[in-house]
Amino acid sequence: MSTGTTYPERYEALLSDKAERLKQLFSDFQIPEPEVFTSAPENFRMRAEFRVWHEGDQTHYIMFDQETREKVQVTEFPIGSTRINELMRPVMDALCQQEILRRKLFQVEFLTTQAGEAIVSLLYHKQLSEEWEAAARPLRDQFGIEIIGRARKQKIVLDRDYVTEELNVCGRLWRYNQVENSFTQPNAGINEKMLSWAQEVTSGSASEEKSDLVELYCGNGNFTCILAQNFDQVLATEISKSSVNSAHKNFEMNAVDNVTIARMSSEEFTQALNKERPFRRLAHVDLDSYNFSTIFVDPPRAGLDPATEALVQRFDRIVYVSCNPVTLKENLETLSQTHRIEKLALFDQFPYTDHIESGVLLTRK
User: Fold this and answer.
1) What is the reported pLDDT for 206?
2) Which residues bind S-adenosyl-L-methionine (predicted)?
3) Which residues on neighbouring strands pair with residue 330, listed in sequence order?
4) Which fold has domain 8-41+187-364?
5) 28 carries a ligand binding annotation
6) Is 354 part of any known ligand binding site?
7) Is 222 marked within a binding site?
8) In this structure, are residues 95 and 61 in contact, taking their beta carbons and an 8 Å threshold?
9) Distances in Å between the alpha carbon of 7 and those of 22, 78, 187?
10) What count of other Cβ atoms lies within 10 Å of the Cβ of residue 232?
């Protein structure tokens, strides 16, 4: 919901309805009863962005109603983390006290962690000067936050552009470098449950001799770090340079040393595996040395294209995490020709919305 409205007393019923929709959507397949992973009903979202509205001497956070597109003033954000709610009003009050910080400010973004780290990004319709930086820097110490100023073709970082998230997965603490303006899972509690599920459904792979994993769309290594425990070697692909850099930092922080990342798209990796064309970005990788048993995919909302579907079908096990059940269903119509659905999970990443995040384990028939 656009204003972050919560209905804790209705949460279980709304989640039950969501699970029923998932089962109905996949009713054409032979599916097990889905595992349903619940979210905290409030303060679950680690990221938030608000437009800024100026009325005379007053400046407000606003969001737009999804149905009417009318602007709605936001004074609190119940779905946002406790840290976001602690910072919202005091930060805005401080910005309004100095015209150089307030003038032409049009958006404020928050990135927080479960441990309380925070980045506040200030977006402007003006170029930022040394005077702006001098005015903004004291807020960093005042609120214990990192501050980033953005304008057209301009980014000023005071002094870091990342936070370090800590996630508890199957009894172990993992640390993740999360860079401002890069994709990270918004619901940290659900992310922990997604990672635990992925680790558990691939845990049997560790007993197989020289069993390797390929992962497409690895991002900052969110799943890669966890899954690497269950395999001898991991080959992961990711197109975003900043995400690849974060992934390498995350491997180092978590002592993960059996992963190789290729900065390329899934389509390019398919071509490489098919030996259709060589890639300099794979010059350091001997694809023939891998003994892949499992593939992990967490694609964008568009799902898998036909060529990637064909690639995925080569593997004995497929672990598919999806943010769009409609395209997941379309992909399963192809994948179920060669594989059976062993496990189905619903992760309530976005409570109080129609959004369904799901996970599927498929094994070869």
Assistant:
1) 47
2) 185, 217, 222, 238, 298
3) none
4) Rossmann fold (3.40.50)
5) no
6) no
7) yes
8) no
9) 21, 10, 17
10) 17
